[in-house]
Amino acid sequence: MARAWLSLGANIGDPAAQLVQAIKRLDAHAGISVTRQSSVILTAPWGNTDQPDFANMAAEVETDLEPVDLLHVCLDIERDMGRVRHEVWGPRLIDIDIIAYERVEMHTGRLTLPHPFAHEREFVLGPLREIAPETADWIVGIRN
Prior knowledge:
There is one protein chain. This protein is α+β, with helices and mostly antiparallel strands. It has one domain (about 1-144): 2-Layer Sandwich (Alpha-Beta Plaits), CATH 3.30.70.560. About 35% of the residues lie in helices and about 25% in strands. The protein has helices at about 15-30, 65-80, 120-130, 135-144, and strands spanning about 1-10, 30-35, 40-45, 55-65, 95-100, 105, 110-115. Strands 1, 2, 3, 4 and 5 form a 5-stranded antiparallel β-sheet that branches. It has a two-stranded antiparallel ribbon with strand order 6-7. Strand 6 (about 105) and strand 7 form a beta hairpin. The longest helix has 14 residues, at about 15-30.
């Protein structure tokens, strides 16, 4: 089993409930076990700032899925929960990003690990530091 760290966020509908639902859906998947969760923090939007604040959190999972397969599960959960992608950095019912997968560094057309912007986003690093400070430090170290 591999360990991976996810960042979850939501800012429309009932963000707190949507985060809980996303965690439950991740944990219900046969190839994923949620092992740690951060607290939820409220943050101003990043990129497109003309939208409601976000509820953000991080989760650590153990998985037997390869990184791209884990990404597909995250995208399926987003879609099943009603996420529609209208604009980059726009409002969303749920967002689930893979921040890191073990210490894998990769760049494909579908996935870059660790997440290419994680080191610039306190709404990602803050919750990640709460559950995996060594992983947050590793990301910052290789991205700076």
